[in-house]
Backbone:
């Protein structure tokens, strides 16, 4: 049987009243017993014996007994009255407290459900609520035959911010990022924080693919203004992956997973944005599995280096090779770096990986030197290494253990990799440069604020990004950028390398523009170690 709270309270009150009535009844009995004893004693006292007659006589003649006679009735009446009052008050008190408890419980429940569905740092919905909202949006869209766009945004290099500036500043940055992101979206859109540095968006009725791209750019652009943390200004970039309901998936899980695949593609293409396509999925083996396997792969020597030649444009002669890592994966075959470097960068494995690349390539190049092949080696260095104060000492150790001349080593770094904590990176770069190691700016032209830092960095070389070089013969603005960059580099006293040179005509055009060094498929694709000796023999200069 179901009893409501007020019924329960009424039952409790009547229980209390019954209990109290019992007590007042006992009181009345005691009163009566006292009257009887007092009357017997009084009769005995006055007539010298105990009898019904002396009892009645005492009752009739003793006024004190009359007063005493009233006591049981007073007891009964007073007991009844007080018990009713107390039980009523107790009932009222219970009601009050129950109500208070109820309000409190409701507030706690509300708080708990808010905490379970919101991120405590930013106050934004969390992953659970996001999925809920996405499911609702899917339901609505299904009925109206509409589309939804789902975007995942990941802040680039956030790990470096956390590692160098501490979690406190990392949190502050995330908070500021969340504010900016919340400001660019429409009321009807949902934004959530679904991971440490990952945000997700549900955008109902997004329009066509081009308007999604426009929107993604707008979201990305909202982060381009530097952020300020204490005395630091921080530049932040993000990678955005997008999917469309129902085109890329019909349920929340599939959509999120594919948006994640697209986001990783955005990190790889360096454009900061990608829309999901099936081909991306084929090329993106499960990241979590890969992450675990990569650690093992480094230890088990499953990584291999291919070396891509760099030649002087004037003589066509080989002057250096760039070490480019690949992963000889048991299941997926030879995997290109774009498929695992971003994972390594996010997990901190990139430091072990870079060490492996440095060790292997220095050892290899030292062997070439011993064989009389005096070429330089270029190694790609990730931003995390440039924040590690022990990195310069490790390099000193490596150079001496292979007896390798520092001047034959070039470290290729990118502008964006030093933007995270420029002062600290600059200090470490300077220490390594003081040992005689060269620095080269890779992917030049794709980052921002190039010139300000370029002036302060001890670099000897810039590499014009292949995205400008490859099409420079057909794209006039690319050609202009290439030409201007070569001039800029020379004015600053730097060597200029063009990468991504795929044909003779481009080679010649760059030579005419006085570009110093050429790298690209036209000269040679990256070569596996087994074939490099043959290349050395055949290279008498690109004619
Ligand atoms: P990157 O440093 O810009 O390397 C040049 C990339 O362009 C290489 O791709 C190379 O194979 C490719 N390439 C060379 N010539 C041509 C050409 O003529 N046309 C075209 N379309 N592409 C050309 P790869 O080896 O797949 O490397 C991709 C990126 O992965 C590298 O870009 C670099 O950022 C990263 N990476 C490679 N090895 C390492 C490494 O050991 N450590 C780190 N941190 N990153 C690495
Ligand atoms: Ca490079
Ligand atoms: Ca490059």
Residues:
């Amino acid at each position: 049987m179901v009893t409501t709270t007020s019924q329960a309270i009424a039952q409790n009150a009547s229980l209390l009243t019954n209990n109290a009535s019992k007590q007042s009844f006992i009181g009345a009995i005691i009163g009566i017993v006292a009257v009887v004893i007092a009357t017997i004693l009084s009769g005995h006292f006055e007539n010298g014996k105990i009898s019904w007659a002396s009892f009645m006589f005492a009752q009739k003649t003793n006024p004190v007994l009359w007063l005493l006679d009233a006591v049981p009735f007073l007891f009964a009446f007073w007991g009844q009255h007080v018990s009713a009052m107390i039980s009523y008050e107790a009932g009222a008190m219970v009601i009050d407290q129950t109500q208070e408890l109820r309000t409190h419980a409701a507030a706690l429940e509300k708080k708990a459900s808010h905490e379970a569905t919101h991120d405590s740092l930013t106050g934004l919905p969390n992953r659970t609520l996001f999925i809920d909202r996405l499911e609702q949006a899917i339901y609505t869209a299904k009925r109206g035959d509409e589309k939804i766009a789902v975007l995942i945004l990941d802040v680039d290099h956030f790990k470096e911010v956390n590692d160098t500036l501490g979690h406190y500043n990392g949190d502050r940055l995330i908070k500021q990022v969340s504010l900016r992101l919340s400001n660019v979206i429409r009321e009807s859109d949902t934004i959530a924080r679904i991971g440490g540095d990952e945000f997700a968006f549900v955008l109902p009725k997004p329009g066509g693919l081009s308007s999604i791209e426009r929107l993604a750019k707008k979201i990305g652009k909202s982060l381009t203004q530097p952020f300020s943390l204490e005395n630091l200004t921080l530049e932040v970039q993000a990678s955005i992956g997008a999917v469309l309901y129902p085109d890329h998936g019909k349920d929340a899980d599939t959509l999120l997973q594919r948006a994640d695949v697209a986001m990783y593609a955005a990190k790889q293409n360096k454009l900061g944005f990608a829309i999901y396509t099936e081909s991306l999925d084929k090329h993106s083996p499960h990241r979590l599995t890969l992450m675990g396997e990569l650690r093992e792969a480094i230890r088990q020597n499953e990584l291999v280096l291919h070396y891509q030649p760099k030649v002087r444009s004037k003589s066509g002669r080989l002057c250096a090779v760039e070490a480019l890592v690949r992963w000889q994966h048991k299941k997926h075959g030879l995997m290109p770096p774009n498929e695992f470097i971003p994972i390594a960068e996010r997990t901190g494995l990139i430091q072990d990986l870079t060490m492996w690349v440095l060790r292997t390539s220095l050892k290899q190049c030292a062997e070439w030197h011993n064989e009389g092949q005096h070429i330089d080696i270029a190694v790609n260095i990730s931003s995390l290494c440039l924040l590690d104060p022990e990195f310069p000492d490790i390099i000193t150790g490596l150079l001496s253990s292979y007896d390798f001349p520092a001047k034959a080593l070039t470290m290729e770094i990118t502008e964006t990799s030093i933007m995270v904590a420029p002062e600290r990176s600059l200090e470490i770069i300077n220490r390594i440069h003081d040992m005689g190691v060269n620095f080269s700016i890779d992917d030049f032209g794709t980052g921002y604020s190039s010139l300000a830092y370029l002036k302060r960095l001890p670099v000897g070389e810039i590499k014009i990004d292949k995205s400008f070089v490859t099409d420079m013969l057909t794209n006039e603005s690319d050609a202009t950028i290439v030409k201007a960059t070569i001039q800029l580099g020379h004015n600053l006293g730097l060597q200029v390398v063009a990468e991504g040179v795929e044909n003779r005509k481009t080679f010649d055009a760059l030579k005419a523009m006085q570009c110093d060094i050429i790298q690209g498929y036209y000269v040679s694709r990256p070569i596996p170690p087994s074939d490099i000796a043959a290349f050395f023999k055949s290279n008498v200069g690109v004619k």
